[in-house]
Design goal:
385 residues; mainly beta; six-stranded mixed beta sheet; four-stranded mixed beta sheet; 6 helices; elongated
Length: 385
């Protein structure tokens, strides 16, 4: 009870001091703390401001824990996104002591936006502090709480025994575009539903062909939704998503996170059709209607082909060229891509199952010397089936 009263008094003093303060006035103190703060399991420096655990956005951005999207001095608005500390090394953070004054809190007119929603920001001498408690608070004001997150897409936990406060958020390591998916599968995203189709001539790494966002979803940006995969028989939950609005340009993006990566992989693996024989594959890739083989070489285990894609040319004289590995024991896969705009294209065997593809002209401004792109492909590294 005493701690609660002290905390409320500190907030009242802070707010009372700020009521008549002007920009730049001192309205509070920053104290050292013996509480250790973590973000997604990684330690970060923290301070005590008003009885809460404060972290500094600019310092987090410098260390890779956050990203400063923009600062507009005209509108006095700072926009920040949380990042992915899983990829960062540990920052040495020692447990401090309680009660030492380490700085001042200043009155500020800057509006602070974190993960799309406004948050109480504090000026601590040219930098912006926010509290872990504010970022992770579930206060009944956001639809995100139905999925266990605050309006900032965060949660926090307090370990009283060890005096550790932990902030957690949906990390970019689960971003749909960056995770490993089934090879040769093209994905479509319609609001919060993913569908997919398998074709050995799709890009090997898999890709998204269409993203459709309805007006209903656009009207509610930054609201978390379950993300589903629809195989035509049932919808299964594989992650979370939200719609992000670019306020400057008025455009919308679909931000999808795969929290069930293996489940999606299992479902899309089920799309893979039986492998054709090498002879069948060669006929398919040189049928004169969809594809035409324009170059070939053999390695120990593969027939490597340059295949012109005859349908949907990008202009009359520009056809897509797929570089395809046909396994002599059956199965084939596109492993690289080019175009008939590359007027000088060659393939060379450099190892048992290694080839080099050279394409020119590849890049450079008009009038410059032709640039040749060479890529080495180890066909053993591809799951060709």
């Amino acid at each position: 009870m005493k701690k609660t009263i002290a905390f409320l008094c500190s907030l009242l003093l802070l707010s009372a001091g700020a009521a008549h303060a002007v920009n730049g006035d001192i309205i509070g103190k920053i104290y050292s703390t013996d509480i250790l703060a973590e973000i997604n399991g990684k330690p970060v420096p923290s301070y005590n401001i008003g009885g809460r655990t404060a972290i500094v956005l600019e310092d987090l951005a410098e260390d890779g824990y956050a990203y400063i999207n923009s600062y507009d001095d005209r509108t006095r608005k700072l926009t920040v996104s949380m990042s992915s500390p899983e990829y960062m090394g540990d920052i040495p953070v020692e447990r401090g002591t309680v009660g030492s004054i380490v700085g001042d809190v200043y009155e500020s007119d800057i509006k602070v936006i974190v993960n799309g929603s406004e948050i109480r920001g504090m000026n601590i001498g040219g930098k912006t502090a926010v509290t872990i408690e504010d970022l992770g608070q579930l206060d009944g004001t956001s639809e995100n709480e139905q999925l266990g997150y605050s309006k900032y897409r965060c949660t926090y936990t307090w370990d009283a025994d060890n005096r550790i406060i932990s902030l957690n958020f949906i990390s970019n390591q689960y971003n749909f575009y960056s995770v490993e998916k089934t090879p040769n599968v093209a994905f479509n995203i319609n609001d919060n539903v993913i569908t997919a189709e398998f074709d050995r001539m799709n890009d090997y790494s898999g890709y998204v062909t269409t993203v459709d966002i309805s007006d209903e979803f656009k009207a509610r940006p930054n609201v978390l939704k379950p993300l589903y995969y629809d195989d035509g028989k049932e919808k299964i939950r594989v992650g979370l998503m939200y719609v992000e609005k670019d306020e400057e340009y008025g455009t919308f993006s679909s931000i999808c996170y795969l929290t069930e990566q293996e489940l999606l992989r299992e479902k899309t693996d089920a799309l893979v059709t039986p492998a054709p024989s090498a002879d069948e594959a060669m006929k398919l890739l040189d049928d004169g209607e969809n594809y035409e083989i324009i170059d070939r070489l053999e390695t120990e285990d593969f027939i490597f082909l340059a295949v012109k894609c005859l349908k949907y040319p990008d202009g009359e004289d520009n056809f897509e060229v797929a570089y395809v590995a046909v396994k002599k024991t059956g199965g084939y896969s596109r492993v690289y891509g080019g175009s008939t705009l590359h007027t000088k294209a060659s393939m060379e065997k450099t190892g048992k199952n290694t080839v080099v593809v050279a394409l020119s002209p590849f890049a450079g401004p008009p009038g410059s010397h032709a640039v040749t792109m060479k890529v080495t492909l180890d066909l053993n590294n591809y799951n060709i089936r």
